[in-house]
């Protein structure tokens, strides 16, 4: 008998420890795999962090060629040859959609050369010269038949009539830049024709040699992209009708070594199948990327330390274990980014730092639920309370993370450039936080709860008490939902106040949405923006927008700023600020700006609609409607605050706004999950009282998770540069607005939208009850009161 009893006890103990062993093995496998990836595979940094140039090209159709996906693919191959010849290390060249090509050139700080080489169509043609295009009175004579001849200016500006092309770039076998030391011709380009091209070249020069020396018709015009780059005369030694054999010619001119090599590169690489246009261009100096990485690293370190101290102070031992799981989360998310080959951009780096604060959310949900379970059980143990806490918080964790993943997916689908990297980082961070909380943190917490020392000292766990915030709220029991319409009126007043900023101050849209060019300079001495604005007006740029950036920096923004205009602007700023260095240069074409504006509106609309649909399916329609109205309230407040502050509305702000939507709904999800749970258990208490009870029960979680994110965002806003500081500021405003709206706006609106509850009487039992008058046992199976 004793042996059988011991066996049963051992079996129960094995059943309890088996899940813990499985989770421990899984956690060790995840940590070991992440560590191996992190040590062997570096994360690829975006150009905004390591410095370089990013160019977005868009193919254009011609009357003869349609710019479809096939033409774009052929264009990519031609451009790849040109980039390889430039000698850029680790370039990236990919097709984006049917009509766009993304080019990334690390280390290229001057985009002018790269843009000129990539943007030129390089349509090479060779023409016989029919004579001058000017009549006796000096007027330009039009081409008699545009299909058979054309009129172009030569190197000296003389207008020449050219016959239709006899040779094209397809007849060119290769080109090479050479320097003639003996002949004194200097740098020139030697062009080699193919076998077919050799015959055509001999015939062209044979006809030209029949005209006397000095006659324009003895010249042969070499045209590149509708411009005569060379029109040499056939040497007098070449007899009429014989021509130049060998199929090789020289393009001479006032070339330096760089120009000669670029021309040879364009001719050798061949012509682009279709023309391309630069619709977006970004250049970031390496120093700016290094400063951003350093600021983000400090923010991550200090913010994580403050968050860890806060969590340990609130949850004691469990908080300490959650901090250890948080370190594992950082490792797992870094390894996931490296394994996926994702590019870490500047907004993505901010998302990585933010996700550290968001990773605490799941742990707080579990620990607060564990506290409730511990307080509700008659003979609680830390292990049983933890098991119930993880089980009870699972649905709220899943719902809140799914809503954030929706926002991340929309960012990846509709954002452009570095902001798209933020969506990837945010999604990876959310998934890694679930692994950290549900696997690693749970394994550590359950292992600690099984220790005899912890079992004897339950208060050290941090889950043996409900916390002073919850105790004080439940002791006072304030009825916050007594008059929900007053809260709705207060929310409407806040929204109107914020919206008035949009009407009064307007929105300062960045170049992503308006198009144009933005250049950021670092000067040796401080320059007053008004003084720089006056100097640029005198230089011919009256509509340039000049703003200070940091202590000795300036940003200049203008529309239709060409490379020549950029040189003039740089010279003007240099005259004012001494030694001037260009650290950022962004160009957005009008078509790209319009597309980004449309995508921003679509992303915001889909974000609200997707949250409404998910919450309506997951909960009920009035819950979803209340949450979406609260989200719209938060969006208006964040946009209005930036309008009042005069902050830019750009792509990074859009990323912050979508993050606010995903993060803000988390509080509403947790609250609605608790309201739904109370509705299922209690069908008699009025809805305002039930909702008020749910608010009081979930408010500690809202405060604690908000503190974790707020600490990191505050440090990021203080230490980071203007871009990341504005990003952190938008999230801080959204965090405060979301905390308020989930408690007061969403809850109040739920009460107003919820159908009236019918007061239900306690249903008679289906089992045996004692009749009050006769004392007989009466069995009722229908639920009706027995007669």
Helix-strand layout with pairing:
Layout lengths: L1 H39 L3 E2 L1 H4 L1 E8 L9 H18 L5 E5 L3 E7 L4 H9 L4 E9 L16 E5 L5 E5 L3 E2 L3 E9 L5 E8 L1 H14 L11 E5 L3 E3 L17 E8 L1 H13 L6 E9 L1 H55 L2 E2 L1 H31 L5 H33 L3 H32 L2 H5 L11 H9 L7 H21 L3 E2 L1 H4 L1 E8 L5 H10 L6 E5 L3 E6 L4 H15 L2 E9 L1 H29 L2 H25 L2 E2 L1 H31 L5 H33 L2 H32 L15 E2 L6 E2 L9
Parallel strand pairs: 1-15, 16-21
Antiparallel strand pairs: 2-4, 2-14, 3-4, 5-7, 5-8, 5-11, 6-7, 9-10, 10-13, 11-12, 14-20, 17-19, 17-20, 18-19, 22-23
Helix pairs in contact: 1-7, 1-10, 3-6, 7-8, 7-10, 7-20, 8-9, 8-10, 8-20, 9-10, 9-17, 9-19, 12-20, 13-18, 13-21, 15-16, 17-18, 17-19, 18-19, 18-21, 19-20, 19-21, 20-21
Please provide a brief summary of the model.
Residues 136-156, 755-787 are annotated as: Disordered. The protein is of the alpha+beta class. 59% of the residues lie in helices and 16% in strands.
Please tell me about this protein's structure:
This protein has 787 residues and is of the alpha+beta class. The chain has 21 helices and 23 strands. It has four domains: 54-119, 2-Layer Sandwich (Alpha-Beta Plaits), CATH 3.30.70.3400; 124-271, Gyrase A, domain 2 (2-Layer Sandwich), CATH 3.30.1360.200; 286-505 and 594-753, no CATH class; 516-588, Alpha-Beta Plaits (2-Layer Sandwich), CATH 3.30.70.3400. The protein has an eight-stranded antiparallel β-sheet with strand order 3-4-2-14-20-17-19-18. Strands 5, 6, 7, 8, 11 and 12 form a six-stranded antiparallel β-sheet that branches. Strand 9 (172-180) and strand 10 form a beta hairpin. The longest helix is centred in the middle third of the chain and has 55 residues, at 286-340. The two termini are 53 Å apart. Residues 136-145 have a biased composition (Low complexity).
